[in-house]
Design goal:
By secondary structure, this protein is an alpha+beta fold. The chain has two domains: about 10-170, no CATH class; about 180-275. The chain is built from four helices and 18 strands. The strands form four sheets. Strands 1-6-8-11-10-9 form a six-stranded antiparallel beta barrel. A six-stranded antiparallel barrel has the order 13-16-15-14-17-18. Strands 2-5-12 form a three-stranded mixed beta sheet. The termini are far apart.
Length: about 290
C-alpha cells in the first residue's frame, strides 16, 4: 500500500516547522557555547580562481553566534604529530549551528558558512578553520532544514591580517605572527599598539610599512608585525596615528620574537659556509 498522501511531513504548515526550529535554536543556546564567525576576505583582490584561494587574506569582521560542540570528549583528527616539518597540531571537531541564527547574526550578508572562514571558540587553542559545511545533515523534518554541521580544524596562521575589533581574536596575530624587534635611537613621541608605521618621505610612497605590536619607551624597542617592504638603519620610522618618529638603529630579520624554535640563523650560517653567494652562478662549474 502506498504512503498516505494526507500525512506527508511536507504538507504541515509553517507554524509547526517554526516551532521545531525554535526548539532547535533553544537547545543550542542552552547546551552550546558562544563563538565568533569570522569570514575570510581578500587583502589584495587577486584571487586564484583555479585553486579557489587568495595569496593574502585578511579577517576584519567577527559575528557572535552560539554553536553546539557535537563531541565533548575531546578533539578528533590525528592530534599532535612530529614530522619533518616540526610539530603539527591536527585537532578537529564538529560544530552544529542554526541556519536561521547564522543569517540573523550576519545580517544576511552570507548565504551560509564558507569553507576557509574561521570560527573562534574560548578553547585553547581557540581559532579554527572551517574545512567542510554539511547543510543537509537532517532529512527535512516538516519539510525544512534547521542546522549546519561544520567540520573545523585548528587554524594554521600564515601571516594573515586579523583586525576584527574583538580583543581575544586580534591578540592571536600579535602572539603568533612573525614579529621583529626594532632597536630605535633618538626621536620623539610614543608609538601606539595597532597603528601603522612607515619609512619614507610619506606613507603613500613608503619603502617599508609595518603594524605596531608593542612599544617600550625606556628600552626604545619597537615590536612590529605585518611587515611589508624594506626597513633600513639610520632612517626614521614614523607612526601614522601617533606621529612618533625615531631613527632605526638595528634589527635582525632572522629572529622571530614569537618563535623560540626557529632555526633561521642556523640555516643562514650553514648556507654562508656552503655557498659562495658572491658568484653569479654558484651551481655551475663553468665560468659565469
Amino acid at each position: 500500500m502506498p504512503v498516505s498522501p494526507y500525512f506527508q511531513d511536507t504538507e504541515f504548515g509553517s507554524q509547526e516547522a517554526s516551532l521545531v526550529e525554535d526548539m532547535v535554536i533553544e537547545a543550542i543556546q542552552v547546551t552550546g557555547r558562544n563563538a565568533y564567525y569570522i569570514p575570510r576576505e581578500s587583502a589584495t583582490g587577486a584571487i586564484d580562481h583555479l585553486f579557489g584561494e587568495d595569496n593574502l587574506s585578511k579577517f576584519s569582521n567577527a559575528f557572535l553566534i552560539e554553536v553546539y560542540v557535537d563531541r565533548v570528549e575531546g578533539f578528533d583528527g590525528q592530534g599532535e604529530l612530529l614530522s619533518k616539518f616540526g610539530l603539527q597540531l591536527n585537532n578537529q571537531m564538529d560544530l552544529v549551528m542554526s541556519i536561521r541564527r547564522f543569517k540573523d547574526a550576519t545580517d544576511y550578508q552570507y548565504e551560509r558558512p564558507r569553507e576557509g572562514d574561521l570560527i573562534y571558540l574560548d578553547l585553547k587553542p581557540g581559532l579554527f578553520e572551517i574545512k567542510y559545511v554539511e547543510d543537509k545533515s537532517d532529512f527535512y523534518q516538516l519539510g525544512k532544514l534547521y542546522t549546519y554541521k561544520l567540520r573545523v580544524e585548528l587554524f594554521r596562521y600564515g601571516n594573515e591580517t586579523i583586525d576584527t575589533g574583538v580583543e581575544p581574536i586580534d591578540d592571536i596575530e600579535a602572539n603568533v605572527g612573525y614579529k621583529l624587534a626594532f632597536t630605535m635611537g633618538t626621536g620623539t613621541g610614543n608609538y601606539q599598539a595597532g597603528e601603522l608605521v612607515y619609512q619614507g618621505p610619506a606613507f603613500a610612497t613608503a619603502t617599508g610599512v609595518a603594524e605596531v605590536a608593542s612599544w617600550d619607551h625606556p628600552s626604545k624597542i619597537l615590536n612590529v608585525i605585518n611587515i611589508a617592504g624594506d626597513f633600513v638603519a639610520n632612517t626614521n620610522i614614523v607612526g601614522v596615528l601617533s606621529a612618533a618618529s625615531y631613527s632605526l638603529t638595528s634589527y635582525d630579520d632572522l629572529t622571530d620574537q614569537n618563535s623560540g624554535m626557529n632555526a633561521n640563523r642556523t640555516i643562514q650560517d650553514e648556507a654562508n659556509s656552503t655557498i659562495d653567494f658572491s658568484e653569479s652562478n654558484p651551481f655551475s662549474e663553468s665560468t659565469p
